[in-house]
Design goal:
Layout lengths: L30 E10 H11 L3 E4 L6 E10 H11 L2 E5 L4 E6 H20 L3 E7 L5 H9 L7 E5 L4 E7 L2
Length: 171
């Protein structure tokens, strides 16, 4: 069984005898001393969340043993070091809700969200517009316009009236 020694010291900045002015975000400036050996990363994250006044959600697959010996380090920097050393990533959900998961899981979720957003954008109704050209040939402009359309979009032209018929997802 590993021995764990936790010692924390909150260092206050610029205390004067006349008055104390709290920083704009009081917990951002909090510096901590931490000395742990083979500590469970979830326990270390809980400690950082307590100091930073954060709500923490750690995914079930978050596991690692961390050994740290840090003195007077800002807690956001400690959080970053712990996450990097354990191959974890953070996701901020709002102002003070922090979710921690493996880097791979966070990347996969972001990719799924991007794919979903793209599918949602492309599933919208199609819109057709007619553009009559005066100083260019529609057949020369059509291939250029096709490069800017979505996967569902198309451009056809009427040679007789020199008109582009552009169909694409409404934006």
């Amino acid at each position: 069984m590993s021995s764990i020694l936790l010692s924390f010291l909150m260092l206050s900045s610029s205390l004067s005898s006349a008055a104390y002015q709290a920083p704009a975000s009081p917990n951002e400036d909090a510096r901590i001393d931490i000395d742990v050996k083979d500590a469970d990363v979830v326990d270390v994250l809980r400690l950082i969340a307590e100091i930073g006044e954060l709500n923490l959600v750690a995914d079930p697959d978050v596991s690692c043993e961390a050994t740290l010996k840090l003195q007077a380090v800002p807690w956001p920097q400690v959080l970053d070091v712990v996450l990097r050393s354990c191959g974890l990533a953070e996701e901020w959900l709002g102002k003070n809700l922090l979710r921690v998961a493996t880097s791979k899981q966070i990347r996969e979720e972001y990719a799924e969200r991007r794919k979903y957003d793209e599918e949602k954008r492309l599933s919208g109704p199609l819109s057709t517009r007619y553009r009559r050209l005066a100083y260019a040939r529609a057949e020369a402009i059509a291939p250029i316009l096709e490069k800017f359309l979505s996967a569902r979009g198309s451009v056809v032209y009427d040679e007789r009236t020199n008109t582009l018929i552009i169909t694409d997802v409404a934006r």
